[in-house]
Write a structure and sequence with these properties.
Chain B: Its main location: membrane. The complex is a heterodimer of chains A (211) and B (190). Chain A has 211 residues and is mainly alpha-helical. Chain A has 9 helices and 2 strands. Classes of the chains: A mainly alpha (211), B mainly alpha (190).
Chain lengths: 211, 190
């Protein structure tokens, strides 16, 4: 149970794929400037990644590494088609804005490389928990980025004007995305460092009392 | 003067600095001179040959079924991926162990796939770029753009990873902020 809990929170807090693994960062940098874009990307990433990794888990493990990587990429390219068709119904405007980053989500390194290095070494139930946790980690970062960048770049929240004194237009640009994500990574690491330090202190305290 | 103009054009059209494509691969490339040469070489090969192949895909695939483009691009890159591994194995077996990790990293990533989609988008917008030559040169330019961005990052790599940088910002966070500042400078050239 403890291990499952670790898997569940690991991808969100402990080993976030965006802030710690620096995976799938291009859509966050370029398209994560409004909540609407963030919503559309969250839907696409979650659907494509979950379905692709799940389907790919049935690929025989005995195949050579290169063949498996190609099969994973082909599977995610196929999963992309219905996801994209559904998205054009729900998020027609965002899809236009997201442009080429939409198909690029389908060949993200979480699907193509992490499946082999991480997920398929676990039991199926653990794999699903860990995968969901990684997806949640991305979704959370995307939401926070979309919210804060929209607020400070356009002075709006979900396209509704907010009374805010300081508007920094540059935050909506790619360079703003790079700098914002860099700062977010630093803050995330700082918090993670503090939490693990506290945990170590508690653990070392227990060790002493145990003795 | 022409050279300066070309350099400015290359920087302004740089897919990493203006579109953040292949940023994580760039961090691997900037780690050492060996990584830089090998990754940049393989990425340039993939973008150039991939763009040539994508020209024919774009010709063959009608816009009504454009969602299938990703599948065809993936198949092209898969073919190149296998072909490159076989070629290196046959003709450079001494370097195979060293080179294959760069080929694995470079095959399916945003730098390569993003280049193919960007070229397709540019060709749709500007008919002058829609010929075979336009595709190949744009693919090659994207590879050179990757090299330039990697060199820019390599120049500061050691300092951004030094102990003088606070621990939380050391490495990737500092490199992202640094790339953001370079990207801001490039943005002003447009």
């Amino acid at each position: 149970m403890n291990n499952r809990k670790k898997l569940l929170f690991g991808g969100v807090l402990g080993d976030n794929i965006v802030l710690s693994g620096l995976m799938v960062i291009s859509p966050v940098i370029i398209c994560g400037d409004t909540l609407k874009n963030a919503e559309a990307l969250i839907y696409a990433f979650s659907a494509i990644t979950f379905l692709s990794v799940l389907i790919s888990s049935f690929v025989p493990r005995k195949l050579p590494y290169t063949a498996k990587i190609i099969i994973y990429a082909v599977i995610s390219s196929l999963v992309y088609i219905p996801v994209r068709l559904a998205a054009s119904e729900f998020y027609p405007e965002s899809i236009e804005r997201i442009g080429i980053y939409y198909p690029l989500l389908a060949v993200n390194s979480l699907i193509v490389f992490q499946t082999e290095a991480k997920f398929y070494r676990m039991k199926k139930a653990d794999m699903i928990i860990s995968l969901l946790s990684c997806i949640l980690g991305f979704d959370l970062v995307m939401l926070i980025t979309g919210f804060l960048r929209e607020l400070f770049a356009y002075g709006t929240i979900n396209s509704k004007i907010v009374d805010i004194n300081t508007v920094i237009n540059g935050l909506a640009q790619p360079f703003g995305g790079f700098i914002f994500l860099g700062l977010m990574c630093g803050v995330y690491r700082y918090i993670r460092g503090m939490v693990s330090k506290n945990n170590n202190e508690v653990r070392s305290g227990t060790d002493v009392s145990d003795k | 003067m022409f050279l300066i103009n070309d350099l400015i054009a290359l920087l302004a059209a740089n897919l990493i600095l203006s579109q953040a494509l292949g940023t994580s691969t760039l961090f691997i490339a900037a780690g050492s001179r060996k990584n830089l040469v090998a990754t940049a070489g393989v990425i340039t090969l993939f973008t150039t040959i991939g763009s040539a192949a994508s020209f024919f895909i774009d010709l063959a695939v009608p816009s009504s079924v454009s969602d299938l483009r990703l599948l065809f691009y993936t198949l092209v890159i898969a073919f190149l991926y296998v072909a490159l591994l076989i070629i290196v194995y046959k003709f450079g077996s001494r370097w195979f162990e060293d080179m294959r990790k760069y080929i694995h990293v470079s095959a399916f990533n945003c730098a390569v796939m993003g280049t193919l989609f960007t070229i397709n988008k540019r060709a749709d917008a500007d008919s002058a770029l829609s010929g075979f030559g336009g595709y190949v040169s744009a693919g090659f330019e994207a590879g050179i753009g990757f090299v330039i961005a990697a060199i820019i990052l390599t120049a500061a790599y050691r300092k951004l990873n030094s102990r003088k940088v606070p621990a939380a910002f050391r490495g990737f966070p500092a490199m992202l902020v640094y790339l953001g500042i370079i990207s801001m400078a490039v943005y002003s050239l447009k």
